[in-house]
UniProtKB/TrEMBL annotation:
GO molecular function: kinesin binding; protein sequestering activity
Identification of the protein by name: KIF-binding protein
Record's keyword annotation contains Cytoplasm: yes
Source species, domain of life: Eukaryota
GO terms (BP aspect): central nervous system projection neuron axonogenesis; in utero embryonic development; microtubule cytoskeleton organization; mitochondrion transport along microtubule; neuron projection maintenance
Species this protein is from: Capra hircus
Presence of the UniProt keyword Nuclease in the record: no
Main location: cytoplasm
GO annotation, cellular component aspect: cytoskeleton; mitochondrion
Keywords: Cytoplasm, Cytoskeleton
Family: Belongs to the KIF-binding protein family.
Amino acid sequence: MADAPWAEIREKFQTALALSRVELHKNPEKEPYKSKYSARALLEEVKALLGPAPEDEDERPQADDSLGAGEHALGLPAELVEAEGPVAQGAVRRAVIEFHLGELSAGEEHLVKCLRLLRKYRLSHDCVSLYIQAQNNLGILWSEREEIETAQAYLESSEALYNQYMKEIGSPPLDPTEHFLPEEEKLPEQERSKRFEKVYTHNLYYLAQVYQHMEMFEKAAHYCHSTLKRQLEHNAYHPMEWAINAATLSQFYINKQCFMEARHCLSAANVIFGQIGKIRTTEDTTEAEGDVPELYHQRKGEIARCWIKYCLTLMQNAQLSMQDNIGELDLDKQSELRALRKKELDEEESVRKKAVQFGTGELCDAISAVEEKVSYLRPLDFEEARELFLTGQHYVFEAKEFFQIDGYVTDHIEVVQDHSALFKVLAFFETDMERRCKMHKRRIAMLEPLIVDLNPQYYLLVNRQIQFEIAHAYYDMMDLKVAIADKLRDPDSHIVKKINNLNKSALKYYQLFLDSLRDPNKVFPEHIGEDVLRPAMLAKFRVARLYGKIITADPKKELENLATSLEHYKFIVDYCEKHPEAAQEIEVELELSKEMVSLLPTKMERFRTKMALT
């Protein structure tokens, strides 16, 4: 090829590359894609100047072109064939043009042609990076079309090719842009390595998304973790995006009860989020990241919510491990867990911690400093639970700064519900009954104002949740006040009045919840929906129990209360006979209801006899 045309080709290519990278907002308002169209036109000119490729003369597709990745997509290793000689170099340069045309138009045809031109050279130093990038782009394209298995094939092929190249060759390969650069402008080894590693990091990121879509959650988490780790190692990340991804990953570990790993992800998220506005702008840091106050505060609030879930789930997990069959603290179980504590502490120094570690040096120290302030071990007593509670409550206040009721109704309510749940689980660890009562009172104080402003028509499900939760809080308070009164030799009228008022409030909210299940004609459903079956049955059971707990000196009123109580117990028994599947949802309550249906009529008859005699 003559020198003059080659210089012209190089210049056109570099101009096209520069135009393709122009941000849309820098184009004229009425022509936002002007630079992209210009870039595409120049690339087509370069393609014409390069002349036809051997495949252009015979366009018959090969049998394996449907996947584009060829036999390598089936997991077979590539053979090393160097791209030497004018024919090979011409094919590679045409492949570069096809790749960029494919990038500009999300064009499958261009990207598949790129792979076809490079197939035999794909393991070579000159072509491996370009081949992997083309496969990555096809993976993204098929993923957007929701052809997930095809996307998976391309991306796994890229991963296998990267691993084979690093194992067999290892030297930093040529970057695709270098095929149109003079020798003196070629990139140094360090820059090539940086770019190639970034390509592989993108490959892992896309694989994580594909595995998530395929509900292969273990694999998705592994690839997400690897991506985050590599982004830090190569200093190629957006602090805000990285922090959110790390915080999101923590939720996977929380669900798996891997609290050490979850804490590490959240601590790293805090440290990296703190870099926003403090680190110099790189090619991977968008200027807008720190310049949008609303987005900054939203992301900060989202990370705070992940911390709340961490504290709450860890406390709830401890409660489940230590409670007896009536939900109270089992001292034997508590002792057993204390004995296991040493084993849990030993694990911290094991391979498990090293496997999840983000960053090195100062970054690692900064993450460890955040970790040290929060335990990953299940709390075994009130003091340990209180430490987690206070951390969770700190993040509740942080989340509420952004997720306010005006504009973020659902989010705000969920944060308040989590705050209430933190108080509820803390009360489990508290041994002082009066202090437990105060914790439930705090829950009611934060939940009751929510339903005043909520339109029950638009927020029916949320309304039901809050009504049920408030009812349960009043129910727990009443039980505690009864237990306190039982310890007194002669409870005064003030305590009796307090118990009855709590009873009345619990009844009110359980009834509001049950009424919300009625149809527009106020008729209670004959068949209760699966999503509300258990809460509806629990509400009926607790209403029955509450009527039986009302303290009154009026025998006639007491008889009425017992009759109402029996009516609700009978409803549960009758409903479960008609709908046997419901019995599985409330096995304990059903047995107690059957017992009460058997005992209450006798008790009521004795009561009537006593009334007649007096």
